[in-house]
Automatic annotation (TrEMBL):
SMART domains: AAA. It comes from Methanolobus tindarius DSM 2278. This is Nickel import system ATP-binding protein NikD. The complex is composed of two ATP-binding proteins (NikD and NikE), two transmembrane proteins (NikB and NikC) and a solute-binding protein (NikA). One of its GO terms (biological process) is peptide transport. Its EC number is 7.2.2.11. Keywords: ATP-binding, Cell membrane, Ion transport, Membrane, Nucleotide-binding, Translocase, Transport. It catalyses: Ni(2+)(out) + ATP + H2O = Ni(2+)(in) + ADP + phosphate + H(+). It is found in: Cell membrane. GO terms for molecular function: ABC-type nickel transporter activity; ATP binding; ATP hydrolysis activity. It is an enzyme of class 7 (translocase).
Length: 322
């Protein structure tokens, strides 16, 4: 399958007053045409950083190395102006907390027109009909395009953001935590909506979440991220039915029954490691319940090329699970 987005050996550090934060570590990552790919990990693991690095935003104190190719072309070193064209037109972005990203007091129609004008010279009628179609696609009555965002519910605003990100039929959508602030029933509807629009428009999607259980429903493939590293990757079925990395296994075990009331869930005990430190061994070791001798001395394999699990367990048959 041809790769639409291909990220290779991506390292991202941020310099701050406290020192250097090592956030992404040798990330290899790709999305094929028409694929829905999930990126899952705890808060702070570097998911949004990966998305924003691909889109070249939040770059003021960022240092990166590695390759990012989109549709066969390197985009990590192109001019800002050209990157602005890629963003919005070729890659649609639904940023984290995006239901609050719309200007609450500006009519939906004006915000849609602004995006269209930034990338095309469409006539007014064409802009109008495109806006109508896009709103219809996400189940918002087009007659409401003269309303302002504050007049909609959170779920409706999220639908509007999805419509906006798809407006110019991008090849790729990046949706960062698209369901996080919504309640469970609305979450499900938004997830199904994303899947429907992506399939309908023959787009690809990177969907980011800390919630493996909800997001995995619509993913073809999944990457699990821990402390800025891809720790496991596989098809949806491989990840859900045959997880290998102890972190993936813990994520699955702490799953919440989807439709139930919020209850106290047994999370994963311990805290993620500091981004200020460079690790010589496995970042997950302190929280891992399968630590063996080798973990204390040798860094696990990297999830690149044909390696699908960044853990000694995978390469050491003696300690195979169950
Ligand atoms: N511009 C920045 N400067 C310094 N640290 C940053 C910057 N952007 C993100 N980080 C740090 O990078 C880490 C990963 O953040 P983020 O990518 O937002 O994680 P996630 O989306 O998985 O919750 C966090 O520790 C965050 O504080
Ligand atoms: Mg994030």
């Amino acid at each position: 399958m041809m790769s639409l987005l291909d990220v290779k050996g991506l390292n991202v550090d941020f310099s701050t007053k406290e020192g250097m934060h090592y956030v992404l570590k040798n990330v290899d990552f790709n999305i094929g045409k028409g694929e829905i790919v999930g990126l899952i990990g705890e808060s702070g693991s570097g998911k949004s950083t990966l998305a924003m690095t691909v889109l070249d935003i939040n770059s003021h104190n960022r240092h990166m190395s590695g390759n990012i190719s989109f549709m066969g072309e390197r985009i990590d070193s192109i001019k800002k102006e050209k990157m602005r064209q890629v963003r919005g037109k070729s890659i649609g972005f639904v940023p984290q907390s995006s239901m609050n990203a719309l200007n609450p007091l500006v009519k939906i129609k004006s915000q849609f027109f602004e995006t269209i004008k930034a990338h095309t010279n469409m006539s007014r009628e064409d802009m109008l009909s495109l806006t109508e179609k896009s709103l219809e696609m996400v189940g918002i009555n087009p007659s409401r395009m003269n309303s302002c965002p504050y007049e909609f519910s959170g779920g409706q605003r999220q639908r509007i953001m999805i419509a906006l990100s798809m407006l110019l039929s991008p090849e790729l959508i990046i949706a960062d935590e698209p369901t996080t602030a919504l309640d469970a029933t609305v979450q499900l509807k938004i997830i199904e909506l994303l899947k429907d629009v992506v399939k309908q428009k023959h787009t690809s999607m990177l969907v980011i979440s800390h919630d493996l259980h909800t997001i995995s429903r619509i993913c073809d493939r999944i990457y699990i991220m821990y402390a800025g590293k891809i720790v496991e990757t596989g098809t949806r079925d491989e990840i859900l039915n045959n997880p290998v990395h102890p972190y993936t296994r813990k994520l699955l075990a702490s799953r919440l029954p989807l439709m139930c009331e919020p209850v106290r869930v047994k999370g994963i005990s311990g805290t993620p490691p500091s981004t200020l430190k460079k690790y010589e061994v496995c970042e997950f070791m302190e929280r891992c319940d399968r630590v063996s001798e080798i973990c204390r001395t040798v860094r696990p394999p990297e999830c690149t090329g044909s390696v699908k699990v960044a853990c000694h367990l995978e390469s050491n048959s003696e300690c195979h699970l169950e």
